[in-house]
Amino acid sequence: GERYRLGKGLNQDYEKAFELFAKAATGGFPPAMFSLAVQYQEGRGVEQSDAKAAQWYGKAAEQGHEAAQFQIGLFYEEGRGVEQDDGKAAHFFIRAANQGNARAQNSLGRHYHQGRGVQQSDEKAAQLWERSASKGNPRAQFNLGWCYERGRGVEQNDEKSAYWYAKAANQGNTRAQTNLGWCYLSGRGVEQSYEKAALWWARAGAQGHVTAQFNLGRCYEQGQGVEQSNASAVKWFAKAADQGCSSSMYHLGVCYGDGRGVKQSDAKAAKLVGMAAERGQKDAQCTLGWYCRSGRGVEQSDAKAVYWWTKAARQGHVTAQFNLGRCYEAGCGVEQSPARASEYYTEAAAQGCAASQFELGRLYEHGLGVPDEEDTATKFFSLAAYQNFPPAIRAMARAPGRGRKRTEAGCRDYWLSRLAVRSAENLRNLPHGAVLSCVLDVNGSKTEHWAIFDRENDQLLDYGMHRYKESGASYGYNSQRELGGTSAAWKVQAVSPEQFFYAWKIHEAFLVTWIPVDMRNLCHEAVNNARSSIGRRDKLKLQNQENTGAISEAMVRYWFTLKGMRKTSMDCSSTMSENKQCVIS
């Protein structure tokens, strides 16, 4: 029968094999009973029947056939051909495991881990997985690695965890490959290596593991362990999204929104982000709220923005909490309620959100929705200020007695110096071609200045200025000024970041924001001029009054939009998906 089944020395003939297996099984031969059950299970040479397969597996198992004991255990575990029964499944797994069957040992370990049909015991689960793993079973090797990583049933040990993950990964186990990638990314149990993390995720991703595909997409997006490639990032995000990965849907939507690796499309971005949001992905919910607020790819609706931000906020999304605070304070999409605003600011502030800490301080300072408490206001201002949040630093500088026991002049100088240093540091993190806006009060004349950041040469290129009620013109500085200085030389030239921020006296009206070159539908004219200036790396003279006004109006409009609401920071979900498999295999 075996020779007919395998085609060894004879023409392969499943029907003939079945006939011979049936004769031997009827005669009470356990191996024939097992082979007959396999024929019924696979439907080879006979009509497929789980019930008859279970019948013959059971007969062989009762006569001590190790493989049959394991198979009938699986049938009872899954309810295939028999009524589902965890107790009977564990019974047969125990019998097979006691005969050294590695697969049964792994399955029995899973039952002890989950408390199915036996009393729950992580220690017994780990012991069984170790016995199975030592025989080379890749699932048991993965499970044992998981135990050592979590300290479940064994003493926690990152090195042993990585060792067993590697054993299973080298046998092609995709879960182990994914977790081993995490070990290399974080340097837990192995020497940290972005390249090896990406390598293992690539192997698992090629086999269809959805989390590995998402992680690999993030690697390509960030250029971490692989050469940066937006097109490759999109490729892997799309593969994972097709399998229902909500995080991949979200990131793929962001790629469409930014036009990274694909043709820019607000409609596709909103659709993908919406699909992720519907599945509960909190970053997507926050971003979809922003799309609804701005009418990007969807119909503009403040009410829907509030709806999605509320969903994200309930999951603890700090940006959504902040945005809801702004909505309730301004009555945008909801009935105005400073008290509700303070609740959302408080939630975000508790997570360390500097913007919310500042806004909460402002509410306490003016008694909006909360008691008028100067000490509480100072508390929240200082929390944000020590995170180098410029508006909070200005608030601390505005009231000399706040924060530190200093003389009035010393306290003010301390916070103003901190603001100036923070401003210069912020420049270093800007993308090449960022457009900066600075509203200053110079000798009583309120002036709006523009500059472009040239990251490659670490300098600002002069862009122009707009003096309120006056015409615009190009300008520049010829030397660095001390903090508090007000003089400036009106010679057009490139200036350093320090010069731009130290040249003028800092007043409470001081505002700084930036607009990346790749932002679409915002400040289109200014962005094009920025690209042109960076390309020439020389002065940029605004051609006429009309042009100056248009650019200023657009950028000021963007500033107030940004001040009022915040987009989801891409860093909110920039981490890889940590696939620490809780479902033991």
From TrEMBL:
Family: Belongs to the sel-1 family.
SUPFAM superfamilies, alphabetized: HCP-like
Species of origin: Lotharella globosa
Coiled coil: none
Domain of life: Eukaryota
Bilayer-spanning residue ranges: none
Protein name in the entry: Secretory immunoglobulin A-binding protein EsiB
